Amino acid sequence: MVVGRPDIAIFLLWVGGGGTETVVWHLARGFVDAGYRVELVLGNAASEYRFRIPSCVRVVDLQTHGYLRTTLKLVGYLWRRRPAVLFSTLPFSALPAIAARYLSLKRCRVVVRVCNNLARRFEHERAAFPRPVRWALRSFPRLAHGVIACSTGMAEEIAGITGMPRNRIHVLYNPAITEAMARQGTEPVAHPWFAPRPDGAPAPPVVLGVGRLARQKNFALLIRAFAAVRRTVAARLLLLGEGPERARLEGLVQELGLEDEVSLAGYVANPYAYMARAGVFVLSSSWEGFGNVVAEALAMGAPVVATDCPSGPAEVLDGGRYGFLVPMDDEEAMADAIRRALAGERRGASEEWLGRFKLAEVAGRFLDVFGLPRAKGAPPAPRSRTEAGG
């Protein structure tokens, strides 16, 4: 059955289980809520995480791999479906999107979003960024009609990498907070550390980390800091996520003799219920683009400790006003901040502050950059060259 022309096509090479996809799913729902017809175009839809795709969007599976084949298939899609806006995410998915838009000669606007620290990824993930890919990442964004950075730090970085004028880059924070999260935070959790004790005594507080078990997230730092915390405070450490660092992290837990106090529980679909029950939430990353989990934990009422890494966490925490910021790779400073948070030194964020990370507001700002009205049928907002995230 032929369906009507989409207003917005969102392109991703694949479907993963990380924060990038979470943001895309939130935005897709926000655009649909605003009255727009949205299609999700995937280079290849085969994924164990496909269940996360919102049912409100039509999925188009190009069933291909590789930049060249994917770009050519995306050209065909643009000829057939003629979306008004093609939206994608750097580093990888945006390259075929920008190329396909120009090869197709179609008049859709192409808008790309920068969601992670490219300079750090160039440094630490060299195999994923061969010279042609680096050249494309420096050159292609200049061809987009709109470039969106998820933090001020990311905007400054992409301006330096691409040579684009800073005033061409829009700063829009991630839509990390949705209306559904309040309900999700009350759902039961399966982990035994949150179950009531038979004797009625309070259980030790849980220090929580959420993210892919990868080098970027630096969970080894959190484990070592937790070992220091355990010398004076009875607590437990729970890590939610999966990834290539699992074996190394499990080895570190054994080396430190923490097998009974540290649990690597794997991926969970609803981390918000854990955040709502955590004694403290900790982000230990070496770099970020924004740090969705920091905003999510604030929304769930958890005290937050985060490394002052580039870029994003300091902006989400307003320079430390709403959480503890600690230097990178400083396990003693992290351990001290965790102890203080567990002792009750709370720095909860105001509703006004959290509002800048809520889906309805952020989706409206994206539509402004797309050149579309915030509600379909309404007049479009005047388009500015730059919009501050705050």
Topology:
Elements: E1 8-12, H1 19-33, E2 38-42, E3 58-61, H2 67-81, E4 85-90, H3 94-104, E5 109-114, H4 118-124, H5 131-139, E6 146-149, H6 152-162, E7 169-171, H7 180-184, E8 206-210, H8 219-230, E9 236-240, H9 246-255, E10 262-266, H10 272-277, E11 280-283, H11 292-299, E12 304-307, H12 313-316, E13 324-326, H13 331-342, H14 351-354, H15 359-370
Parallel strand pairs: 1-2, 1-4, 2-3, 4-5, 5-6, 6-7, 8-9, 8-11, 9-10, 11-12, 12-13
Q: What is the CATH-assigned architecture of the largest domain?
A: 3-Layer(aba) Sandwich
Q: Helical content, roughly?
A: 25-40%
Name the helix and strand elements from N-terminus to C-terminus, one letter apiece.
Answer: EHEEHEHEHHEHEHEHEHEHEHEHEHHH
Number of domains: 2
- Distance between the ends: 43 Å
The secondary-structure class comes to: alpha/beta
* CATH fold type of the largest domain: Rossmann fold
Poorly predicted spans: 383-390
The average pLDDT value, as a whole number, equals: 91
Structure characterization notes:
The chain has two domains: 8-175 and 358-370, Rossmann fold; 180-352, Rossmann fold. The chain is globular. It starts with 7 loop residues before the first strand and ends in a 20-residue tail after the last helix. The chain has helices at residues 19-33, 67-81, 94-104, 118-124, 131-139, 152-162, 180-184, 219-230, 246-255, 272-277, 292-299, 313-316, 331-342, 351-354, 359-370, and strands at residues 8-12, 38-42, 58-61, 85-90, 109-114, 146-149, 169-171, 206-210, 236-240, 262-266, 280-283, 304-307, 324-326. Helix 8 (219-230) packs across helix 13 (331-342). Helix 8 links the parallel strand 8 and strand 9. The strands form two sheets. It has a seven-stranded parallel sheet with strand order 3-2-1-4-5-6-7, with helices on both faces. The chain has a six-stranded parallel sheet with strand order 10-9-8-11-12-13, sandwiched between helices. It has 15 helices and 13 strands. The protein is of the alpha/beta class and 390 residues long.
